[in-house]
Amino acid sequence: MDEPRRILVIEDDPILRELMSDWLLAAGYRVAVAPGGESGIVDAKACRPDLVVTDINMPGTGGAAVIARLARIYPGLPIIAISAHFKCDRGLAPGEATLLGAARTLAKPFRRAEMVGAVRELIGTPAA
């Protein structure tokens, strides 16, 4: 039996981090979480995820740096960039996140179906 696909969620908001983790676990994926960009990069090196979900606006090492570094370290690693600021003039634009290496962007607030659907589009369904 194959192991479920691994997803790393990097999000500084503990409530949203737990919510996304719960959604992805319920969908059958293995999930690791990190509370910030630098710890997320360290965790990615340790757990070698099949996909990363990262917030853009975080204190310290932000999502733009996380995307750029992970794309350089692991070319082809699917990354989903999330942000509440994609819909306004603050923060990184979705196109900029894609240029850095994000495969998809999701604007907060998003629904469970959007998150799980984006993950499935990028890495497929979990192994049975």
Task: Please provide a brief summary of the model.
With 128 residues, the chain is α/β, with parallel strands linked by helices.
Which characteristics define this entry?
128 residues, alpha/beta, Rossmann fold, 5-stranded parallel β-sheet, 5 helices, 19% strand, globular
Oligomer: single chain
Order of helices and strands: EHEHEHEHEH
Kindly provide the radius of gyration, computed on alpha-carbon positions and rounded to a whole number of angstroms: 13 Å
* Structure annotation, total helices: 5
**Range of helix content:** 40-55%
SS-based structural class? Answer: alpha/beta
Q: Using the coordinates above, name the CATH class.
A: Alpha Beta
Strand content: 15-25%
Q: What is the domain total for the residues?
A: 1
In whole angstroms, how far apart are the ends? 7 Å
Reported for the largest beta sheet, the result is:
5 strands, parallel
Low-confidence stretches: none
So what's the overall shape? globular
* CATH third-level topology: Rossmann fold
What is the CATH superfamily label? Response regulator
Mean pLDDT: 88
Number of strands: 5
